[in-house]
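New to this. Please check both lines:
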Amino acid sequence: MRLKDKVAIITGSAAGIGESAAELFVREGARVLLADRNGEGVAQVAERLGPNAAAIAVDVSRSDEVKRMVECAVERFGRLDILANNAGYGIPGTVVNTEEDAWDALMAVNLKGVFLCCKHAIPVMAAQGGGTIVNTASNVATVGIFDRAAYVASKGGVAALTKAMALDHAEQNIRVNCVAPGVTWSSYFDRMVAGHPDPESFKAKLKARSPINRWAQPVEIANAILWLASDEASFATGAMFTVDGGMSAW
């Protein structure tokens, strides 16, 4: 029970890494507010996880909704110990062919969303004596990939913001770290495979991005988030924990 009596918010928890993290957190003794723009989906996950899970529909790019999310966690569970900023998405494109509106929309979720969630959660954590924040960045923050300029930029921003917040809030006993996944299977890749003329070739290329020649399952990344959120990582702050099957070692 590594998170016994802890209260957590996990954004982007209707599916994928966020859903897996919510399952692990509840199993390890936490009470969890699951947040996602997909209100129906996140409510179904919370119902499945039982009485120690609740759900809220949130657009993390909107300050008023994020403020309400943090208030909901405190009202429902009495405090806030852990914030896992996992909401995010990717789009294809170079800087030349990425539309400006698409760039702004992605940055609003992937980077501004982390800023807003921390902006509203940190004062609550500081007032109660501390807490921990785990952001989902990506290994592309350091290695880069083709045709994903906006996504790469946003995740590089998350990694840098993590370090800045770790320094700013260390004296308040608030640890801030990020996990940097490699290719992790999700509904995003399901859609890409469905629209690809050669699905098997596409999947083979995804696997080949890492030396161990496979992609991650969401729970493998969620395990890293769990560790960073727990007291087992009590001396870790400002760190990026890379879980990418060795891709960044190339």
